[in-house]
Amino acid sequence: MECPVCLDNFNTSIHMPYVLPCGHSVCVSCVDALIKAHNNFCPIDRRDFTSRDQLKPNYDFLEVLQAQITPVIQNLLCCNGHLIEELVTVTQNCEICDKRRSTLWFCITCQYGVCDKCKNWFEGSRSVIEPGLKCYRSHSMRLTEDVQKYYPKRKGVFLCDGCLKKSSGSSTHCRKCNVDFCIECYQKLIELIPVATNIFCTCKNQLAWRFSEVCGKCKRCKNAYKKSGSFLCLKCKNKFCIKCTDCIRRNR
């Protein structure tokens, strides 16, 4: 499915579909272009809209896109892309959780092994297709819909590293680093990452999402974030958390 303005296929980054009040979808880049040109109306039925803040991503279509991509990427691969499907008895650390195991699903060529629990977690979760959404150590993250199933000791509850609140249910997770983002923070991130350069620091310079730049103490709310990336001011190097960046965007 393509954007009716630029005719590029919708995706989860610069061509993320946004729903207009009339129900039609336009990619976020074209929405910004329409607003900048003062053409705040749907290109199909000409019904107007006031601003992008009143619009939301088309989550239904994003779920369809995710479902289309998921079957292609569910195979568990080693670091060099080989399919892991051989269970062997060998004592070494699992490459995902880094725990010592005696039995691993193994790639003999690369000496890359994954324990049974991590393999089950991988197969029962979905890859996060937003390219900028990684943990603070640059590992890819996966969407785990039932945290309790894979982390029974947590009793279905986890601390979100994006908002520092306890949450349950779905988690965007790095198993290696024990990083969790709740579904609300995940949705905010996929909204904010493509448009971060349109959000400005107090010094009037652009922000940019940096997953490897640990937020630490947020410049705005002063909360300390130890495992979350940050929206970084490219000039003064101020760092803002996800929630504060979203507030800045809405109040601009």
UniProtKB/TrEMBL annotation:
PROSITE patterns (UniProt xref): ZF_RING_1, ZF_RING_2
Transmembrane segments annotated in the record for this chain: none
SMART domains with a match to the protein in the record: RING
UniProt GO BP: protein ubiquitination
Residue intervals of the RING-type domain: 3-46
Matches recorded under Pfam families: zf-RING_2
UniProt key word Zinc-finger: yes
A GO molecular-function annotation: ubiquitin protein ligase activity
Nucleotidyltransferase found in the keyword field: no
Record keywords: Metal-binding, Zinc, Zinc-finger
InterPro entries noted in UniProt: C1-like_sf (IPR046349), RING_finger_E3_ubiq-ligases (IPR051435), Znf_RING (IPR001841), Znf_RING/FYVE/PHD (IPR013083), Znf_RING_CS (IPR017907)
Protein's name in the database: RING-type domain-containing protein
